Each structure stands twice: as structure tokens, then as C-alpha cells.
Amino acid sequence: MSNYPADVEVLDAESQRNVPAVPEGARVIIVTCMDCRIDVWATFRLQPRQAHVLRNAGGRVKDAFRSIILSQHFVQPTEPGSTEVWVVHHTGCGMKGTTNADFREDLTKIYPTHEACINDIDFLPIAPGMSLEDSVRADVKWLKDQPLLREGTTVKGYIYHIPRLEAVTQESSDKRGWQQFPANLNV
Ligand SMILES: [Zn+2]
Predict the structure, then answer these.
(1) Known SMART domains for this protein (predicted)?
(2) Ligand 1 mean position to 158 CA, how many Å?
């Protein structure tokens, strides 16, 4: 039984039990994390030309918004634009439990003369105490509230569970390298 509310669906990439396929002929925008463990095309069984996949750290919609608007209004002038957006956050995400202060402090250590520039960046962290359910719901709500979102757009939220084996592999490889990143980036 899922502990998540009905508007946030839990996907299980390992079993593929709960992973929805994009209906044939449908056009969707999938916003998800840039984490290499997520094979978006295979997981959602996407066909070529069926989706715009927008990836960034955490899969945050504010970061993807410019591309969402372009996808819906300008990219396919001879076809109807995408009217469905899937927001997919995932377990084991490096952005979970982070703060802007953490990123700014660590980056300022590397670039001490660029503090002002660094402080201007919103890294869109999934803050400590914020669950994946919270982050997905916040992004879905934020997107639905945008006046430039195409009228009639359906926005769905999902939580993708990284397969256990992959998560363990990632953890051990993190211990060997990536020291230049803040320690809390390696969940
Ligand atoms: Zn992630």
C-alpha cells in the first residue's frame, strides 16, 4: 500500500508494475532529474517523437518552465503542442535534503571572488524535511498556477523508485570520487 496521496503516483522501475506507458499517439512533456540511473525512454516505453524529456537537477519544473512553454506553443507549429506534463522526482535524489545555503557556501569556497553571482542562483533544493511527495506536489501546483501554461493541460506527479541494486552501486561509486561536490549531494 502506498503512503502517497492519490495525486502522486509511485512508480517502481524495478518491477515496472506501476509505470505507465504513454498512450500511443499522445504527446507529453516529462520533467525529471538528470540522474543517469533514470532511463526515461525505456521506463515509460516512449516511442520516438512522442515526448519532450526535460531533465535538470531534481526534475524541478521552475527550471524546466521555459522549455515547457516552448514545447507547448512553438516547437511543433504544424501539430498540436503537448497538453500533458508529467513531473517525476525520484528516490535517492542528490537534491533531497539540500539547501541553497549549502550549495552557496560550498561553491563560494571554490570561487571566493564570485559570491554575489553564486548568491543569485536558486538551486531549487528539496530542503531537509521536505518529502518527495511534498516536492512533487509543490511542482505540480506551481506549474498549474502558471498563466502561460496551455489551457487544458493535465499535470501529473510521479515518484520514481530507483531500483535497489542501482542505488547501492551509486552509493559505492560515490565513495570513490566526486569529492568536488558537497558531501550532501551524494545521498
Ligand atoms: Zn535526482
Answers:
(1) Pro_CA (SM00947)
(2) 13
Q: Supply the pTM of this predicted model.
A: 0.81
With 0-12 CB in 10 A as exposed, 13-18 as middle and 19+ as buried, what is 65?
Answer: middle
Weakest mean pLDDT among 21-25, 83-87, 97-101, 104-108 = 21-25
What are the structural domain ranges in the chain? 8-185
Instruction: Consult the annotation and say whether 33 binds a ligand.
Output: yes
Q: Flag whether 117 is marked binding.
A: no
Q: Which residues surround ligand 1, an ion (CB under 5 A)?
A: 33, 35, 93
pLDDT in tens, 144-167: 999 999 988 999 999 998 875 544
* C-alpha 128 – ligand 1 centre gap (Å): 15
63 is annotated as contributing to ligand binding: no
For residues 96 and 127, what is the distance between their CA atoms, to the nearest angstrom?
Answer: 6
- Asked if 28 and 82 count as a contact pair (C-beta separation under 8 A), the reply is yes
Q: Are 170 and 93 a contacting pair, CB within 8 Å?
A: no
Query: In CATH, what class is 8-185?
Result: alpha beta
